[in-house]
Each structure stands twice: as C-alpha cells, then as structure tokens.
Design a protein that fits this description.
CATH class of the largest domain: Alpha Beta
Strand order of the largest sheet: 7-14-13-12-11-10-9-8
CATH superfamily of the largest domain: Aldolase class I
Largest sheet: 8 strands, parallel
Oligomer: single chain
Number of helices: 11
Bound molecules: phosphoenolpyruvate, manganese (II) ion
Radius of gyration: 22 Å
CATH architecture of the largest domain: Alpha-Beta Barrel
Order of helices and strands: EHEEHEEEEHEHEHEHEHEHEHHEH
CATH topology of the largest domain: TIM Barrel
Amino acid sequence: MILILTQDAKPESPEFRQLIGHLANLPDISTRIHTERGAEQVLTEIYLIGNTQALDVEDMKSLPCVESVVRVSEEYRVLGRHRDDHRPSHFDYNGVRFGQDNLNVFAGLCAVDNPEHVEMMMRALRDNGQVCTRMGAYKPRTSPYSFQGHGKSCLPYVFDLAGKYGIRVIAMEITHESHMDEILEALKKTGSPAGVMIQIGTRNTQNFELLKIVGRQQRFPVLLKRGFGITLDESLNAAEYLASEGNRKVIFGLRGMKTNMGDPHRNFVDFSHVPVVKRLTRMPVCIDPSHSVGTRAKGPEGILDVMHVTAQGVVAGANMILVDFHPAPPKALVDGPQALTLNELPYFLEDVRIAREAFEKRCALGERFRKTT
Ligand code: PEP
Ligand code: MN
C-alpha cells in the first residue's frame, strides 16, 4: 500500500510525526519513505510493506498528511500501474520531459571515437532541433580484444561539445559503478554543460548489485535495456530494483531478443511490447531500432529496416528512440554497419514525425470509437 502525502507535508511537522507514530503501531507493517524533489514541489510517499490486506483504504486516507492511498498489486510495486493509481508517468530532467505521453529522439554515436566525429554529430543534432543524444564511452564487447570504448578520457570533450551545441541529455552506458563516479567527476570539471542518462545495457539487466547502486542515486535518470534472453517480467523486475532503491526516473528500453528466429536481423524485434510495458508500468518506453536490426538492409521500396521498425515502435506509442548515427560509418569503431549517416538525420526525423502523427490519429480514432459504443 502506498500513502501519497499532501504537498505541504513536512517531516518536522506535528501532523507528520503523528502519522509516523500511527504507522509504527500497525502490527506486521514496516514503512519506507520515498521523497522526490521536483522543480517546484516535493512529493513524499510512504510505502507500507507487510500485511496490508487488513488495512482499510478509507481509514488510511483519513490520517494526517495523507492525500491519497493506492493499494498495490504484488507486481512492480513502485513502477507498476495499480488500480486508482494516479501517480505521474513522466519526469523532467535538465529541461527535457520524459513521459508516456511524449517522444524524444536520442540519435548519436554507438561509441565515441574522436572529438571530430563527436562535434560533427552534435552540430547535426543542433541543426536539426535536437537536444538529446547517445554517446558510448564504456562499451561492453563480446571479445576482450575488441575496442572497449575510450572510457573516462573522452568524457571532458563529449560534455564540452554537448554544451557548445545545446545538447541537454546524453544517454551513456555504464558497466561498473566506478563509471558513474568518473562521469560525476568529468561533469564537475567541465561545469556540467549537459545532463547524463545512465544506460544499463542488456548484458547487465540483471546485474542486481549495479542496479542497486544506480538506484540509490537520484541525480541521473536511468535507461534500463530489456535483457535479451529473459522474460519481460524479469526485466520489469530489474527496473523495479532501481525504483525500490529510490530512483524512479527510469525508462524501459526494448532492443530486440537474442534468437535466430529473428534472422536476418541481429535480434528479434520486440516493439510489440511497447503498449504492454506502458500498460503494466508507468515507465516511458524506449525503442532501440539499431541494435534490434543491426544492418542497413532495405525493403524493396528502398526504406531501411531500421527506419521501418522505428516507425512500427512509434506508431505503437514509443516515448524514446535510441538510434546509432555516425558521420563516417565505415570508420566507426563499433557497430558501423547499422549506423545511419548524418545526411539521413532530417529524413529519419521526418519519418518519425509521420509515425508519431499516425499514433496520435490512432489514439483519437480509438477515443471516438469508444464514445460511440
Ligand atoms: C548500446 O546501446 O550501445 C548497446 C550496447 O545496447 P544493448 O545493451 O541493447 O546491446
Ligand atoms: Mn552498439
């Protein structure tokens, strides 16, 4: 059960203390307080854990400082959608809104290679009205002999160039907790010209200790990729690890499943799960068409499969697109064969706009249909 407190509830107030005192006397119930600091308000929620079946929702609602009460089903307690649950399904970070009701594009480099390519990418994004990007500094590679990413050495120029071109949020995978410290250090040194969204890759979806550490900080939002060989439920529980530790600014990323049933694509595209994740949880849903498809193959009409699956995900309501671009794909150190080129960026963005418009029209059509039946 979750008690959502009134906006003005202050921990030092007598009402708040009275509430905590009351909860402490409930048999077999423990409490966990979660505080979320937004730009304008502080949201406080109290999670009641244990035998909450015996508690009456109306009784709990009448307690001091309590605005509303949500009885949670067992699954995904913090991030899930529960009955009569009106908690928000969006958050703001560094001036960008991430929600189940909007769409952000994160076009960028799979792996940072040199400052020239980073600058070309950032400039193209700025020229096309984009404020988000992806920049891989720490690359989990199948072979230990493959390029592992430039790591902390590239962070200062990545952040400086982001600032120069008005990029507000950079999605960046980390594979170890020390990488988060390196990112913090580089942000401090460069004066924090951009925000970072910590990405947990598909190979680490169930790295529970990493999830707990990333979940304990609230400075950076997190993009959690679905595990490529586990069930959706297992991946959603991984997201819940982040939230249960305190960070609920979580975006869930679909990136295809590892099975040769998806051949000739690199992974079996799973974007049919966009509405499923939005229904089961309050997380915005990201699609990664590049790592799903893995090639620049085209349909007979000349449209890249990467663009087709992007449109399919967006038409189904995706909220974020993580997509590989590169100024010179043959020179890319990682995943060049799936990268789009900079001159394809305006074309890609227009295609996304068409798909988003189709999604909005489909929502309006559904609404009209439901009103007449
Ligand atoms: C990536 O986005 O660069 C990446 C490695 O993705 P995934 O974890 O989905 O393989
Ligand atoms: Mn990649």
